[in-house]
Design a protein that fits this description.
Blueprint (H helix, E strand, L loop, with lengths): L1 H39 L1 H8 L2 E8 L6 E2 L5 E13 L7 H14 L9 H11 L1 H5 L4 H8 L4 H14 L3 H4 L4 H15 L6 E4 L5 H9 L7 E10 L7 H4 L14 H5 L13 H5 L1 H4 L4 E8 L4 E8 L6 E4 L3 H22 L6 E7 L6 E11 L6 E5 L3 H4 L9 H11 L8 E3 L17 E3 L1 H6 L3 H11 L14 H13 L25 H8 L8 H12 L3 E3 L4 E5 L11 E4 L4 E4 L4 H16 L6 H4 L7 E10 L5 H5 L5 E11 L6 E11 L7 H38 L3
Parallel strand pairs: 2-8
Antiparallel strand pairs: 1-6, 2-3, 3-4, 3-5, 6-7, 8-15, 9-10, 9-20, 10-11, 12-13, 14-17, 15-16, 18-19, 19-20
Helix pairs in contact: 3-9, 15-26, 17-19, 17-20, 17-23, 19-21, 20-21
């Protein structure tokens, strides 16, 4: 009995010892595991806990400047004080609202961008409980039958938003709206990308007080921004182009294109003409910084990677002194011609001056009369773009191309004669020149502007034969094809390939009857732009080389000092697009005809250019056309209203051309008194070109002489 009790007593301590052993071994394993975690993997886990992310951000820099060919600055950047906000990745709506409230006390913010939708959203933020009551539980349950998740939330929010009354919106005070205007800028920015809050009319006081309180305004910073500045005001401004505002950012239709090229969504880019065409040159090399953030998206450190560099500069081929003088002449001649003709349709004129040796565009001018929407008064505005964006019937100015087409096709031979008398074709209005000219050859046809001579060329090309009062069967398809292909060699009816976007090539009419081919030969069927006329005039002037017109002369590295032009990166070389067909002596013969137009009695431009010492040559143009201007429907409805277009192409000096000119005056007059605005313009502009050249040569000679005198004085002579 005692033995049994002893055995029982001795068994209990054994179990306790076993239990203690198991507990001891377990703790030992845990301690060993903890040691491994702390000693072996401790640094790895610590790095994981303190894990950060490096995000590289590009900060924009000022765009490149633009200069004219003489070194005058025509597009610059003005530095502006700016207040920015950089949104952290994990920032909450309430945090941004707090910042907006603080900023509203320190700065004034315009409300012009605040829309009604913004007000509704802001009202909901300020009145969450009242907004929730606008949608009942029953309505929510019904929506749940068809929607769920984020889509359901959107539907509910939209109902709340739509049910806010005007009275409730009017509860927002002026202070609320200013906070809203600031909050709107904060919330539309992209994570870790500086967003402009205010960059216009930031007063020194605002800049200083915000700078002093940056520690209380997380994400806010003060910096220097820039804005485009035009020293010559509106001169050539439409051609220079525009840049998007910071709130516009990248154009939606080119978003992928720019993002693929490392642009940020709120970057400002060129959106029209030179600014757009040369965007990759002008936009510069952006500054890069690395934002080090924690897992919550809070910026821990900002590390500069590379400094930014202002965009490269453009030197344009434009001579701004000549450009401004030409614009002034156009304005004066427009006013004078309107008084003479009494027509209300004349509202614009365009002039291009081009170097026929290089294709450099020296002047691209245009002025247009428009009504001021506020005052109702007529004002002049820039219409330089009209030189490439509009096309018109230009009349006899194209006759040089018609003569060359005749030579090349064998339709005429140099010196061949025709009787210029009205042509009567069966069931067709009489086709004639401005007056019967008698027997004329090719040179006379240019000098005196014979339509009938050109008609004979077109008939011969179309393999027809003129019989008075008879029908005129022609191979129209071949005739139009042949003549258009020939005209294209001079730039008429095709892209000139100028370095600007949105160039128009004009209208090509359908080949419906023989009379239209005859009209084509005298410039009264297809339409052409003034830039096409300038390229055509240059091709005649230089003897057959169709030069590519360009408005940018060279690209340069930027310099920070003053307005000096930096080292050249690229010079735009002259480019011959094609060589117009024809023997050298044929071109010389057309050039002789152009010279007769301007310098020989009886020439259609002789009364304007006969006494000039710069040896001019040219061709006048008068075209019967139909008005298709801005007031067409208001004045004439669907009726066709006949008008006269005036044009002129020319060059000088005739023996060694250095400038070619094209002038177009659409809708010059209708039933009113006629005038010669095309020739008035051409004469005054060409006079100005050579007078300006003379002044500069005299100035250079004077400077040279002064330099030599100073040099002698320094040498003690």
């Amino acid at each position: 009995m005692n033995k049994k009790k002893e055995k029982k007593k001795s068994h209990i301590p054994f179990r306790l010892n076993l239990l203690f052993l198991i507990v001891f071994i377990s703790f030992s394993v845990l301690i060993l595991r903890l040691g491994v975690v702390q000693i072996v993997y401790g640094d790895d886990y610590k790095r994981e806990i303190e894990r950060t992310e490096d995000v590289t951000v590009n900060n924009p820099v000022p765009r490149g400047k633009m200069y004219d060919r003489t070194g005058k600055v025509i597009v610059d950047n003005i530095p502006q004080n700016a207040i920015t906000y950089t949104k952290n990745a994990g920032v909450k709506q309430d945090d941004m609202l707090k910042v907006a409230n603080k900023l509203a006390v320190l700065i004034e913010k315009d409300l012009d961008k605040v829309q009604e939708g913004d007000k509704r959203d802001f009202w909901i933020m300020k009145n969450q409980k009242r907004a929730d009551k606008k949608v009942s539980e029953k309505e929510i349950d019904k929506l749940k039958e068809n929607f769920e998740g984020k889509e359901l939330d959107k539907k509910i929010y939209r109902l709340k938003r739509d049910r806010i009354t005007e009275e409730e919106l009017n509860e927002l005070t002026a202070e609320d709206l200013e906070v809203l205007a600031i909050y709107r800028e904060l919330s539309t920015g992209y994570a870790l990308t500086p967003q402009i809050v205010k960059n216009r009319n930031v007063t020194p006081e605002e800049f200083a007080v915000v700078s002093e309180n940056l520690q209380l305004l997380p994400g806010v910073d003060t910096t220097t921004d820039w804005e485009r500045y035009y020293p010559f005001d509106s001169t050539l401004k439409s051609v220079l182009g525009k840049v998007t505002e910071s709130e516009e950012g990248l154009p939606a239709d080119m978003l992928d294109y720019y993002l693929a090229r490392d642009y940020s969504r709120n970057d400002r880019v060129g959106k029209s003409y030179i600014e757009q065409q040369y965007e990759e040159v002008l936009h510069g090399q952006k500054a890069k910084v690395k934002n080090v953030t924690d897992k919550a998206g809070k910026v821990l450190e900002t590390i500069p990677i590379t400094d930014g560099k202002r965009g490269r500069d453009l030197v344009l081929s434009i001579d701004m002194e000549l450009q401004q003088a030409t614009e002034k002449i156009i304005e004066e001649e427009l006013k004078k011609a309107k008084n003479i003709s009494g027509t209300s349709l004349l509202d614009r004129a365009n002039v291009v001056i081009m170097d026929p040796r290089t294709g450099e565009v020296l002047t691209m001018a245009g002025r247009q009369i428009v009504k001021d929407k506020e005052t109702g008064q007529e004002v002049m505005q820039d219409d330089a773009l009209g030189n490439i964006s509009m096309a018109y019937n230009v009349g006899s100015a194209v006759k040089g191309a018609t003569i060359m087409t005749g030579y090349n096709t064998g339709a005429i031979k140099p010196g061949e004669r025709y009787l210029d008398t009205p042509m009567k074709i069966h069931q067709t209005p009489v086709k004639k020149s401005w007056k019967p000219l008698g027997v004329v050859n090719d040179l006379d046809a240019l000098k005196r502007s014979s339509n009938v001579y050109m008609f004979h060329i077109a008939i011969n090309i179309g393999d027809g034969k003129y019989i008075p009062n008879g029908t005129l069967p022609l191979n129209l398809k071949y005739g139009f094809k042949t003549m258009r292909e020939s005209f294209a060699q001079y730039g008429l009816g095709v892209r000139t390939e100028i370095d600007l976007p949105n160039e128009q090539i004009g209208f090509k009419g359908p080949a419906e009857n023989p009379g239209l081919l005859l009209d084509f030969s005298i410039g009264q069927y297809d339409t052409y732009s003034n830039m096409q006329l300038a390229q055509y005039a240059s091709t005649i002037a230089n003897g057959g080389n169709r030069m590519k017109p360009h408005i940018v002369k060279s690209i340069h590295e930027p310099l920070m000092e003053n307005h000096e032009i930096g080292p050249i990166v690229q010079e735009i070389s002259p480019k011959v697009l094609n060589r117009a067909e024809g023997h050298v002596e044929w071109f010389e013969r057309v050039q002789e005809g152009f010279k007769k137009v301007a310098q020989e009695p009886g020439g259609t431009a002789y009364s304007f250019f006969g006494d000039k010492d710069y040896n001019p040559a040219g061709k006048t143009g008068t075209a019967q056309a139909f008005y298709d201007g801005p007031d067409k429907e208001e004045k004439f409805g669907k009726e066709l209203h006949e008008v006269i277009n005036l044009s002129f192409v020319g060059y000088a000096p005739a023996d060694e051309p250095e400038m070619a000119i094209a002038v177009i005056v659409p809708w010059a007059y209708d039933s009113g008194k006629g005038h010669n605005m095309n020739l008035e313009l051409a004469e005054r502009v060409m006079d100005t070109y050579f007078e300006l050249k003379k002044q500069r040569q005299m100035g250079n000679e004077s400077a040279k002489n002064t330099g030599e005198i100073n040099e002698r004085n320094e040498d003690g002579l």
